[in-house]
Amino acid sequence: MKNEVLVIDDNADIRFLICNILKEKDYLVRSAANYDQALFEINKKIPDLAIIDIKLDKGDRDGIDLLKNIMQTNKNVPVIMISGHANVQLAVEAIRLGAYEFVEKPFSTEKILNYVSRALEIFSLKKEKETLESKLFHSFELIGESSEITKIKKTIEKLSSVESRVLITGETGTGKELVARKIHKSSSRSKNPFIVLNAALLQEKKYEKELFGVEFEDGNISYGVLERANKGTLLIDEVSEIPLEIQAHILRVLIDQKFKRINGSKYINTNIRIISSTSKDLKNLVSNGDFREDLYHRLNVVPIDLPPLSSRTEDIPLLINYFQARLADLNGVPEVSIDNQNDSLYTYNWPGNIRELRNLVERVTILSVNEDKNNINKILNDILNKSSKFKTDTDLITDTMSYPLKEAREEFEKRYLVNQLKKNQGNISKTADYIGMERSALHRKLKSLGIKGIN
Questions:
Q1: Are 262 and 333 in the same domain?
Q2: 389 pLDDT tier (thresholds 50, 70, 90)
Q3: In terms of domains, do 377 and 401 share one?
């Protein structure tokens, strides 16, 4: 497929020259003479690459404004800035804002073609990487024949013909996002966007921006997930982490089906299906006053509870057979034969659930290339034994054997976090960095577990 380049320059001669240079090399070319024309072309279709003159028709808005607009729309699109009035400060600013290269006029044909070729090559590599990562996750199927999984598959089928909101619950790694994607793919919205908002990873002050978007004084717009998901599906992952104030805003959107961007004056109608997921007990959070009851009932129209892998061990052979074929293909290595009847697979407690099993199969697949069957089993057992030693603290198991699963999990989380806080002398920021959580999310987790300051 030919690459498309958008050339933006208010000088007709230079615009004509660049367009002809590119057309001779078989690029698809569009052009614009000023800011408004350029914005129209960008909004119509984002190009694979843009060449932008910094000074445009002496208007209030220039090429830097267009660069910002493109970066907000798709930061992977390479932009080459050109100028006849170049200075170091201007060049540094353009690169800081995301430009691929800054070129002074006059420039040679060879130079501009060289920059275009290299920029498009990098753009292509980024797209290939995204495609591979997308395949790695999005192409996985919901595998299993246990009664729980069979029931969930039937529920997904029934949801294909309705627009009901869905609340998916389950431990980390049980496949909540996968189920949400299957619901979207089987629905009438399947050709429209599927957008994920991971509530656990956002800083508290960024929720409104991420949800509603922002209108800037210069006229540029940063679109929020409610707008990007229009006519499609929005998955709010770990919905339990959303602060109460923001929960009220989401409830209002669900009721009114419209919202305003930050700094915006006009209402924007929204037509999206919301699927929520959580690894926590929302009913318990409602009882404690940490989650709005009215929002809970609006989100929990159709509940789907994903079981932990430890309660559906009959699916382990099917999952291993599936993952070893898929992961060998994705990694470009021969498929190895993993003994899916190995006792260790069934005595291990799988705290990371399906995700942990998938990672195990991938590790064994990569480490077992050119190994015989006995060595493959040894590699598998070594990995599981090391994981078991890390996951099973003797004192913790003894203390929590009589606990229900939920309380046992909370006790483990509490001890783990207290340990980490002690190691970091009670410093929340250092602890959050070490365990890979946002500081605000860690604060909420400590509050929910009743952990106070550690000295």
A1: no
A2: low
A3: no
